[in-house]
Design goal:
Shape: flat
Number of domains: 1
Oligomer: single chain
Strand order of the largest sheet: 1-2
Radius of gyration: 19 Å
Strand content: 5-15%
Helix content: 55-70%
Number of helices: 3
Order of helices and strands: EHHHE
Structural class: mainly alpha
Largest sheet: 2 strands, antiparallel
Number of strands: 2
Distance between the termini: 10 Å
Length: 116
């Protein structure tokens, strides 16, 4: 018989934080979809994703707390945009109106097997 282990406060807080970040990414996907035409090819998607990654990388290079250069807010913005463009690539180029079964990339470990 399988039982569920209750989540700790920290686990609950982390899940809420993840949900908020995913909501930000979704909002950015919608915003970008309304502003720009769909991506037409994997090559275009790669270019857009590479550009967002390079913008994130530029902020990382500027980061230096000792010199009072905290670029984490800008890094965060770029990472949300990077994630959003990755989602757009899946929507526009990979799925393109088709439905594919998602391949599991995470297996929840919240269950505990009880054997006596």
């Amino acid at each position: 018989m399988e039982t569920y282990k209750p989540l700790t406060y920290e686990q609950q807080a982390k899940r809420i934080q993840i949900q908020r970040i995913v909501a930000e990414v979704a909002a950015e996907v919608i915003r970008a979809s309304e502003m720009f035409e769909p991506m037409n090819s994997p090559h275009e998607a790669e270019g857009v994703i590479r550009e967002e990654f390079e913008e994130f990388s530029d902020e990382v290079k500027k980061y230096n707390p000792r010199k009072n250069r905290d670029t984490r807010p800008a890094m965060r913005t770029e990472l949300v945009q990077l994630a959003a463009m990755s989602v757009r690539a899946v929507l526009d180029v990979i799925d393109n109106g088709k439905h594919y079964e998602a391949q599991p990339c995470y297996q929840p470990t919240a269950t505990v097997s009880t054997t006596s």
